[in-house]
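the two lines:
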Amino acid sequence: MAADSHSLFSLLAWGDSGYGDEFVRGVATTLFISFSSYAIAATIGLFGAWAKLCHIKALNRAGEVYTTLVRSLPELLLIFLIFYAGTSTLASLLVTLGLAEQGLEIDPFAAVIAALGLIYGAYLTDVLRGGIQAVPKGQIEAAKAFGMHAPKRFTRILFPQMIRYCIPGLGNQWLNITKDSAYVSVVAAVGEIMSVGRGAANRTHEPIFFYGATAIVFMIISGVSMFIFSRLEKRANRGVRRA
Amino acid sequence: MQFDPVYMFTVVMPQLLMAVPLTLFLTFGSSLIGNFLAVPVALARLSPNPLLSFPARAFIFTMRGTPLLIQLFFIYYGLGQLIPGWMMRGFPFLRDGIWYALFAFSINTAGYTGEILRGAIMAVPHGEIEAARAFGMNSRQVFFRVTLPRAVRICLPAMSTETILLLKATVLASLVTVYEVMGTATSIRVDTFRVYDTLVGAGIIYFCLVFVLTRVLNWVERKLNKDRMPVSSAAPKPAAA
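prediction for all of em together
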C-alpha cells in the first residue's frame, strides 16, 4: 500500500492524474472566501464599534450582546447554526414573504461566507472599537471646531489615526479567518483548500502526505500574510516616534 | 423542522449535560499537558543555540500557522496510517479518537503558550534575576524559583484567554468520533433531524461553560496577582510626591 516517494509526488501532478491543479484552485477559493467574509466582517465591525460607542443605550446593549454571544460560542457551532438553521429559516422566511418561490435553496458558498462574516464581525467590532477609543478626544473636538461634519471627520481624522492602532488586531483576525475557513469543509465541500486536502487524503489513503501538503499551503498563506501586515504596520506608523 | 424549547430542555439538554465532563476533561487535560510542554518550548525558543531555537521556532510557526482542524486530522488519520494493525487490535485505546484529540490539543496549546511564555520570560525585571544570583542561587534555582513563577504571573491574562479558546476548540473532537457536548449534539441531530433544538442546546451549554470558566480564571488571576491589582478606593492612597 505504501507508495514510494516518486509516486507520492506524482499525486500532486497537474491535470486529471494528480491534485496539483485542485490545490491551486483551492488556494484561490480559500482566499476568496476569506476576503469576502473579511469584508463583511469589517463592515459589521465598523457599525458594531459605532453601536457600542454611540449615545443610544439600546444600541450599546445590542452590540454588547452580539459580541459576547459570538465570542463565547465555538466557531464550528456557529457555522453549523448559520449553515443549517440560518439558511432554512431565511429560505422559509423569503418564501412566506412571497419574495422567492417554493423550494428555494440558499447557495452553500454564500452561506459559508455569511457565517464567517457574522462570526468575525464580532471580533472586528472589538478591534475597531479599541482603535477608535485610542484616538485622543481632542482630535475629534478640533475637527468639530473646524466645522467638519461627521463623514469628513471620520475619513480625514478618525480613520487614519485609528487604523494605526488597529492593524495588529486586524492582522491577527485575518490570520484566524484564513485558518477558520478550514471549518467550512465540515459543512460543505465548496472546493477550498481543506476540502481538497481532505478529499484527496480519503481517496488516495495517504493522509500524512495530503494533510501535510495542506498544512504547508496554510503556512505559506500565514507567512505571506504576516509579512504583508508587518509592512502595513510600518507604513501606518511612519512619522510616529517610537518610545 | 421547528424549534421546540420543551423538547430541547427535557430530551436534548440532559444528554448534552452528561457529555460535559468529557468536554472538561479534554479542556483541562490538554491545558495541563500543553502548558507544561510550553516551558521547554519557550526555553528552547530563547536559547542562543540555533540547534535548539530553530526547531522551537518552526514548531511554534507550524502550530500557529495551520488550522487546528488539519493538525487534528493529521494526527488522527496520519498516526492511524503509521500504527500497525496488530497494535490497533491489541490496544483498544488506540482506536479511541479521544487520545488523538488530547494529543493534538496539547501540542497546539504548547505552541501557542510557548510563544506567550517567551514574551513573559523576557519581561521579567532583570533586577529580580540579579538579586536571585546575588543570593547565590545557581541558574536552575534562579529559573524555577524566580524567573518562571514571575513569568507565569505576567502572562496569566493571555493564558486564560488561551484556555477559553481551547474550551471552544474542543468541539473539533466531535469530528474524530468523540462524543463530547458537540459530538452528542451532532449525533442527536443526525438521528432526529432536529437542527435547532440540538444546536441551540449545545450553544447554551458552551455559553455557560465559557461564562463560568472566565469567572474562575479571573478569580485565579486576582489571587495570584494580588500585588499588581489596582489600589481600591478604600485603601489609603500614598501621598503625592
